[in-house]
Design brief:
Blueprint lengths: L2 H10 L2 E3 L3 H11 L2 E6 L3 H11 L1 E2 L23 E7 L2
Parallel strand pairs: 1-2
Antiparallel strand pairs: 2-4, 3-4
Length: about 90
């Protein structure tokens, strides 16, 4: 009982918001969890996050929230929030 709730609570403790690519890289290096950012949806930004920060957007978002209006990677208008994690 409560296993899913405990797992979800522990996961929530390991997710940090980032408002720029540099902040995302720093948080990933310090905490090694998941980073949530706003994203424009461009493949070019996804590749930049993967190549520069070693993260991919294949993580499933649990909570959709607004972290700003611009993409944390390129500064273009953002369309959605994405959870980034380590690419395995």
């Amino acid at each position: 009982d409560g296993l899913y709730a405990r797992a979800q609570a522990r996961l929530a403790e390991r997710i940090w918001p980032a408002y720029s690519l540099e902040e995302a890289k720093t948080l990933q290096n310090q905490h090694a969890g998941f980073i949530k950012t706003m994203w424009c949806g461009d493949l070019e930004c996804e590749m930049k996050m993967k190549e520069e920060a070693g993260m991919t957007s294949r993580c499933i978002p649990f909570v959709q929230e607004q972290l700003g209006d611009t993409c944390a990677i390129c500064g273009k208008p953002a369309h959605k929030m994405v959870y980034w994690g380590v690419a395995y």
